[in-house]
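Inverse folding, one chain.
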């Protein structure tokens, strides 16, 4: 299977993946959503050609540090899992444009999150976030940000650095004020 580029195993009953999964070196698109996966093998990071990864609607509680090795990854869908944290290595996903983490159990984000320079669409709604790292404002390419239905009490001043942000959803949080910098969001069309 060394030449395999597209693999669709979604809507099965998979609870684990073999360590040999990392040997699919040419794989570009991988659909593993709607299974019963609770973890991923550390060798998963060896899928260097991967551009699209759908892991939503599984039972993942954590992600391997090797996730940061996906240098070509553009689309990562992890919604509807049981993730409580993200590895620091997530910041190394330099090509990532779309990230969906909604409906997990995240209470915080790693500082490295701000390194996702190509990120355009970010879905973090329906988690347990109470704050955002100050590095969050470094997401310069961000156009869409969904943070609704969390437990946010404040937003970082760095939020005002989102020059490309068009859509910001903040409803159903515990915000008592907004940062002054929110007025600098010149491209914002929906709040």
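Residues assigned per position:
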């Amino acid at each position: 299977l060394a030449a395999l580029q597209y693999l669709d195993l979604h809507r099965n009953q998979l609870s684990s993946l073999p360590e040999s999964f990392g040997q699919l070196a040419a794989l570009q698109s991988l659909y593993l959503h709607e299974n019963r996966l609770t973890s991923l093998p550390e060798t998963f990071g060896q899928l260097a050609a991967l551009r699209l990864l759908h892991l939503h609607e599984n039972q993942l509680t954590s992600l391997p540090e090797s996730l940061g090795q996906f240098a070509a990854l553009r689309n990562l869908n992890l919604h509807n899992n049981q993730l409580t944290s993200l590895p620091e290595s997530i910041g190394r996903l330099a090509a990532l444009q779309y990230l969906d983490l909604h409906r997990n159990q995240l209470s915080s984000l790693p500082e490295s999150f701000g390194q996702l320079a190509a990120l355009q669409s970010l879905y973090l709604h329906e988690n347990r976030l109470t704050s955002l790292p100050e590095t969050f404002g470094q997401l310069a390419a961000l156009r869409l940000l969904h943070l609704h239905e969390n437990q946010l009490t404040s937003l970082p001043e760095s939020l005002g650095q989102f020059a490309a942000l068009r859509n910001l959803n903040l409803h159903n949080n515990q915000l008592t004020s907004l940062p002054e910098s929110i007025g600098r969001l010149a491209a914002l069309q929906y709040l």
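The two ends are 47 Å apart (CA to CA). The mean pLDDT is 97.
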